[in-house]
Amino acid sequence: MGLSPTDMAHLPVSAQPLEKDTPFTFSCHGGLNCFTECCRLLELALTPYDLLRLRRATGLSSTDLLEQFVIVEDSEEEVFPRLYLTMVDDGRASCVFVTAHGCKVYHDRPGACRAYPLGRASMHRAPGNAEEHYILIQEPHCQGFFEPVPQTAESYCLDQGLAEYNRFNDNVASILKHPQARRGKLLQPEERELFLLFLYDLDRLRIEISGGLIPDMTPITVQEILSKNDEELLLFAIEWLRRRLFA
């Protein structure tokens, strides 16, 4: 979901705070010697909106996508399950979608890939009032910083199409950063299943709603929900889950 304020306070040496209008130079393209190096030796955490886009790119159902390309780490000591993209066992932990010519799902690549070399944290002081903070990650292997293309955090995010990703991630943050979660509330097993179902498995969610397996939904509500597109369904799922977990 992006960086938390705690993450921002414990940055590695390669990452430095960046104001949204502070200029830097960067460009990534196939002519660089380091091309696709950032797609290897990484743990790529996936957001619900990342899964929605990858599902669209691969043509797989969300259920099949989870089974084939996603690792779910679900520890009872963590408040929420964590989902990561599977890496190829090639000795370099390469992304399953990377090739010598670049990313096979580039148009629908995850938000963390779009944002690189930026990181973003969002803090909500009040409804509709989000405070954004950025970091710039300058890894030694990356040659993109030597490209004379002027950027700012604000312009780079716009160019990379991150607004839609951030919109959904900020909505999910209402669950991940809920006061009860911050106080260490641990979910029951059935609640952890609901977390994965509602946020990451929209195809199975549609099936369960259609089959009347989700409680407290009238036939009219079910019909209305099933008429929603994927983005609308995900926003509904986030709100429903937040109320269910923290009522």
Q: In words, what does this structure look like?
A:
The protein is of the alpha+beta class and 247 residues long. It folds into two domains: 5-162, no CATH class; 179-246, no CATH class. The chain is built from eleven helices and eleven strands. The chain has helices spanning 5-9, 48-58, 62-69, 111-115, 153-159, 163-176, 179-182, 189-200, 202-210, 219-226, 230-246; strands at 15-18, 24-25, 70-73, 82-85, 87-88, 94-95, 98-99, 102-103, 118-126, 129-137, 150-151. The protein has a three-stranded antiparallel beta sheet with strand order 1-10-9, with no helix packed on it. Helix 6 runs parallel beside helix 11 (230-246) and helix 8 (189-200) packs antiparallel against helix 11.
Average pLDDT, all residues? 92
As residue ranges, the low-confidence spans are: none
**SSE sequence, one letter per element:** HEEHHEEEEEEHEEEHHHHHHH
From the N-terminal CA to the C-terminal CA, the straight-line distance is 22 Å
Q: What's the total helix number?
A: 11
Concise description?
By secondary structure, this protein is α+β, with helices and mostly antiparallel strands. It has helices at 5-9, 48-58, 62-69, 111-115, 153-159, 163-176, 179-182, 189-200, 202-210, 219-226, 230-246; strands at residues 15-18, 24-25, 70-73, 82-85, 87-88, 94-95, 98-99, 102-103, 118-126, 129-137, 150-151.
